[in-house]
């Protein structure tokens, strides 16, 4: 594997998203390697906790927009949009994120740099989040070209705060993420790796069966609130958002200049690549 690195030490397996030159953006190859790495951790009886992190300067900057735009162009061309074909394609990604949610071994997401767009699905479907104080967690595709497919925002933040983020695309830094209850801890970035590993090792003191039982119990509460139905709607709307007039225009712009398309999207808000603004 090259897009996801695997390391086991004691009772903790560390999975590292490894496309640092592309800010660990999501492709089909990356999610397939993630599935394989998770299975490896599940099959190892010595492992009790999984830590998920990103190589380089970011955790995950969402989907690889250039790859996604090219895929839309290749698979659809001038043909009418088939929403169910789109749903089947995106459901494969949602299923990969939900493997973190369903993992019998707790998953701790270690967030630094950008955790945006589809990258938030990796984090929000994990069990616990530990983040850098100056990280950026947000869903800028809410502005154009996307809808959160796993839609964990409301389940983790509630009505007012999830709408505050999804009606603007604004980001949280690590301190606000802890204040709002989205993350367990935040630390200076140079202390983050040790802090996240320490939490993973603390969780790993519990027996594997006890960890699985506690996770099943808490997750069951959320699932009874209608999580699967919400994800169905979120995934369908994601396809619709990419095929609005504005979404198609964004795709065409991204085919010419990905950075320019993102810059134009975020410039009115003065954030992400345009500046440090957060909620």
Describe the structure.
The chain has 279 residues and is of the alpha/beta class. It has one domain: 2-enoyl-CoA Hydratase, Chain A, domain 1. It is built from twelve helices and nine strands. The chain has helices spanning 28-43, 65-76, 83-102, 119-124, 153-157, 159-166, 174-179, 189-203, 208-223, 227-242, 245-256, 258-266, and strands at residues 4-9, 12-17, 49-54, 107-111, 114-116, 128-132, 136-138, 171-172, 185-187. The strands form two sheets. The protein has a six-stranded mixed sheet, sandwiched between helices. Helix 2 (65-76) packs across helix 11 (245-256).
Overview features:
279 residues; alpha/beta; 2-enoyl-CoA Hydratase, Chain A, domain 1; 12 helices; 51% helix
Report the C-alpha radius of gyration, rounded. Answer: 18 Å
Alpha plus pi helix count: 12
Largest sheet: 6 strands, mixed
Mean pLDDT: 95
Given helix and strand content, the structural type is alpha/beta
Count of DSSP strands: 9
The dominant shape is globular
Please mark out the parts with pLDDT under 50 across 5 or more consecutive residues, or reply none: none
Strand order of the largest sheet: 1-2-3-4-6-9
Task: Work out the helicity level.
Answer: 40-55%
Describe what is shown at a glance.
The chain has 279 residues and is an alpha/beta fold. It contains twelve helices and nine strands. Helix 1 runs parallel beside helix 3, helix 2 packs across helix 11 and helix 11 (245-256) packs across helix 12 (258-266).
């Amino acid at each position: 594997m090259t897009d996801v690195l695997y390391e086991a030490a004691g009772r903790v397996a560390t999975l590292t998203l490894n496309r640092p030159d592309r800010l660990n953006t999501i492709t089909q190859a990356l999610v397939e390697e993630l599935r394989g790495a998770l299975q490896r951790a599940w099959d190892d009886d010595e492992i009790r906790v999984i830590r998920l992190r990103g190589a380089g300067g970011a955790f995950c900057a969402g989907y690889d927009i250039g790859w996604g735009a090219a895929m839309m162009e290749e698979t659809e061309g001038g043909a009418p949009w088939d929403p169910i074909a789109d749903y089947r394609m995106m459901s494969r990604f949602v299923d990969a994120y939900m493997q973190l949610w369903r993992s019998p071994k707790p998953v701790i997401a270690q967030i630094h740099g950008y955790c945006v767009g589809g990258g938030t699905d990796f984090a929000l479907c994990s069990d616990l989040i530990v983040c850098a104080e100056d990280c950026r967690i947000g869903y800028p595709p809410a502005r154009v070209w996307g809808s959160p497919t796993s839609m964990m925002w409301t389940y983790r933040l509630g009505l007012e705060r999830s709408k505050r983020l999804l009606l603007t695309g604004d980001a949280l830094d690590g301190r606000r993420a802890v204040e709002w209850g989205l993350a367990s801890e935040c630390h200076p970035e140079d202390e983050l790796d040790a802090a996240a590993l320490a939490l993973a090792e603390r969780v790993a003191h519990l027996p594997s069966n006890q960890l699985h039982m506690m996770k099943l119990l808490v997750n069951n509460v959320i699932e009874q609130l209608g999580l699967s139905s919400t994800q169905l709607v979120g995934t369908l709307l994601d396809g619709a958002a990419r095929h609005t007039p504005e979404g198609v225009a964004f795709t065409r712009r991204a085919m010419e200049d990905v950075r320019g398309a993102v810059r134009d999207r975020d410039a009115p808000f003065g954030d992400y690549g345009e500046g440090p603004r957060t909620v």
